[in-house]
Amino acid sequence: MNRFAILCAVALVAAGPALADTSRPPVDYANTQLSDPRQEAQAKALMEELRCLVCQGQSIADSDADMAGDMRALVRRRIAAGEKPDAIRQWLIDRYGDYVTYDPPFDWLTAPLWLTPIVLVALGLLLARRSLKRRGRN
Amino acid sequence: MIAEAGLAALWIAAALALLQLALAVTGIRFDRDDLSAAIRPVAIAQGVLTALAMLLLIAVFTRSDMSVLLVAENSNSMKPMIYKIAGAWGNHEGSMLLWVTILGIAGGAVALFEKRLEPRTLTATLGAQALIAMGFYAFLLISSNPFARIWPPPADGQGLNPLLQDPGLAFHPPTLYFGYVGLSVAFSFAVGALVMRDVGPAFARAMRPWVLGAWIFLTLGITAGSYWAYYELGWGGWWFWDPVENASLMPWLAATALLHSVTVLATRDGLRAWTIMLAVVAFSMSMIGTFLVRSGILTSVHSFAVDPERGTFILALLAIYIGGALALFGWRIGTVRAGNTFELVSREAGLVANNLLLSVMLGIVLIGTLYPLVAQAMGVQLSVGKPFFDKTVGPFALVLVALLYAGPLLRWRRDRVQAVFNRLTVPIAIAALAIAGIFVLAPRAGILPTLGLGLAAGLAAASVAPLWKRDLRRTPLFTYGMVVAHLGVAVSLAGMASDSAFTVERLVAVRVGQAVQVGPYSVTLKGLKPAVGENWSAIEGVLEAQRGDGAPFPMGPQQRFFSAPPTVTNEAAIKTVFDGQLYTTLGDADGQGRRQLRLWWKPFVTLIWLGGGLIALGGLLSLLGRLLRETRSARRARKRAREEADWGEEAWT
Fold first, then answer.
1. Which Gene Ontology BP terms does the record give (chain A) (predicted)?
2. Per-residue pLDDT averaged across B68-82, rounded?
């Protein structure tokens, strides 16, 4: 708990200035959808992939926490301003680290994770071959 | 007194487990069948005692005996009765007692009902079961005593996490635990078989019902847990790839694979080592899941207490049991004769492919769940969630569904590719038509959901195809079981795809009297009213929903305020109709006289859980079918033996 609490506290403190520097928009984007359905779909998809930093393993798309609301507002505002989802994600990663995205970026540290499926299939095929009859022998 | 009696029952049960292990070891080591014979009653007594301990814990909870520390910390005298009962396992110590209780009951049930297994293998199996139980008794008695007293007793208890104050708590944990811990039987069977070098079709037939039973509970538990999260968390999501959900998915994937491989072992005497391995893996996944959830290494609504000492304890147990079983496997598997091998196009090979895919999915979920912990140990914080699992597990799941078209229609031993395709003409045509139709009618549905819906439509046809042109009255019950379970997969897949393709979401702040359109429904906020329950008060949104010109009906989503402990929760109001659900939750006031509403129209979302229910029902039919056939053949064998005896006597006289 301690480590997590510290992390949360740090995240909150870090979030304060980062989220407050833009003046509050007239619309409460934390809980209001964008009027353009295509943009909203983009925003929604991104929100589902971002972690609510103060919650117990929830995305910002399904959390009641205030900070999740602030992050939703940030995502919608930037999408509405025409920013690409990947750019917004990168902006958040630069601020909060990889912890903020549920889609871990591919790098030397996550390579074993992303390569898991391929390795497992190769291993599995090798194993499965043993239970099959050899061609021509039967 | 009740608490002390409960503690005593646990200590005696632990002592019996030790006795049970000693009987098994000496019985096998010195070939003493009289010692082996004594093992059954000991196992049964152990099961009864653990059940008694659990009942006594429930008793102290229902009496709100605040001198018991666990009750004081987790219950409250004002709580409704059902949550006093269910609250007994809504905390760390109580849920571990439930775990141990089910372990004891499972061992007792094996001792009571298992008649087919070779007697010495059964002795070894019960010995293994006792060995597992001893570790968890030690854990309970040394570091998680549920019956500890507190002096002086507080005036009242601190209450139960309001998110858990839901009827779901009464059913979800026990069901899931029966599945988790039921797999211990498969584990013990595997250990028994390795010790006695008894791996073959007879062993597989004996093990199959136990695996099926645990798997049915797991399926139900996961399905119910998913629906519980869906309506309780209030955001319309039904699966979050949360580590705790993964912890329940992993044993299920392993048990599903085991269920199919044990059939190959029973029918064709193949996959011997693999089946044993899977049995070990399945229960290992249950233990890893318990460790992840119970150690407090994850923070979630499931991890009640955070205590590193307990985590270390469970980790040590985990290392001993999994490591021990794998070592035994490595040591003994060489002595198990290699099983039969198969043709590339055959039912057996199809089941091998099923096992390969399920195991790969299991491996991905396992590594994806543990990776953040490993990264954390190296000083890096990262998250692995939905996008990762969607990208990596999703494709394998779709391939598995495609395989499911052909699997049940393949013949044992050898089949021809051309013949298989001929049998699959109709399902494939249905799938192609469905995909084309959705693409034309709903081009916005997205590629994966479209594919999912089309595959589901074809799978529905393919899964009932094994009944085609068969005498339905003479088809065995377990074949129906397979058909129903596979149909359940199609139904569930259709629900998932439909939910992600067609859900309409509306998040709005409205004034009283304002109407909002969501999907086919118009929802109007009529007002707000207070509501009270036994231990909460609430603000309820008075909503009126209307579909087209249909009759309007009321809906009342609530924001609930619990006093002990003080928490706010969202209580969604859900209207279920034949073609989906209207899901409404009430948010905060925005300070300008408006109320936040979250509304969803989710077409056919209910199919997800209906499918889960069908899968479990299929398992049940299959289990009944197997048991029925066995009783019948046993009766026939007895009759034949009697006739032969009669004939013998006649010849004699």
1. cytochrome complex assembly
2. 85
- Name the residue ranges covered by the structural domains of chain B: 1-161, 505-603
Report the amino acid identity of residue B407: G
**Which chain B residues contact residue A110 at CB under 8 A?**
371, 382
Question: Residue A20: what pLDDT?
Answer: 43
Nearest by Cα to B147 from B18, B45, B55: B55
Q: Which residue has the higher pLDDT, B192 or A138?
A: B192
Whether A98 has its CB under 8 Å from any CB of chain B: the answer is yes
Going by their DSSP bridges, the two strands B504-510 and B515-518 should be labelled as unpaired
Q: Span B551-561, mean pLDDT?
A: 92
Determine the Cα–Cα distance for residues B414 and B582; give it in Å rounded to an integer.
Answer: 50
pLDDT by residue (tens digit) across B200-233? 899 999 999 999 999 999 999 999 989 988 988 8
**Nearest residue on chain B to A93, alpha-carbon basis:** B382
User: CA A31 from chain center: how many Å?
Assistant: 19
Task: Give the pTM.
Answer: 0.91
CA nearest to B508, candidates A50, A35, A44, A57: A35
Task: Say what the pLDDT of residue B84 is.
Answer: 87
SS (H, E, C) A98-110: HHHECCCCCCCCC
Q: Does B341 touch chain A (CB under 8 A)?
A: yes
| Residue spans per domain, chain A | 2-104
Q: What is the rounded distance in angstroms from the CA atom of residue B80 to the CA atom of residue B305?
A: 23
Amino acid identity for residue B94 in this structure: G
Helical pair B477-502 and B607-652, crossing angle rounded to 10 deg: 170
CA atoms within 13 A on the CB side of B384: 29
Among all chains, which residue has been given the structure tokens 């229609």? Answer: B409
What mean pLDDT is reported for chain B?
89
**Contact assessment for residue B310 and residue B291, using Cβ atoms and an 8 Å cutoff:** no
CATH of domain A2-104: 1.10.8.640
Taking Cα atoms as reference points, which of B639, B650, B581, B645 lies closest to residue B610? B581
Q: Both tokens of residue A99?
A: 């912890």
Please list every residue in chain B whose beta carbon sits closer than 8 Å to the beta carbon of residue A62. Answer: 233, 235-237, 240
The helices-and-strands tally (H runs, E runs) of chain B is 19, 10
Whether the predicted interface score ipTM is above 0.90: no
Q: State the maximum Cα–Cα separation within chain A, in Å, rounded to a whole number.
A: 77
First to last CA, chain B: 68
What are B449-504's pLDDT values in tens digits? 999 999 999 999 999 999 988 888 888 899 999 999 999 999 999 999 999 889 99
The residue behind tokens 């301990």 is: B53
| CA–CA distance, B381 with B365 (Å, rounded to integer) | 19
Residue B46 CB partners (closer than 8 Å, separation 6+): B13, B16, B17, B20, B104, B107, B108, B130, B133
Phi-psi region of A63 (alpha: psi -120 to 50; beta: other; left: phi over 0): beta
Q: How far apart are CA B409 and CA B462, in angstroms?
A: 8
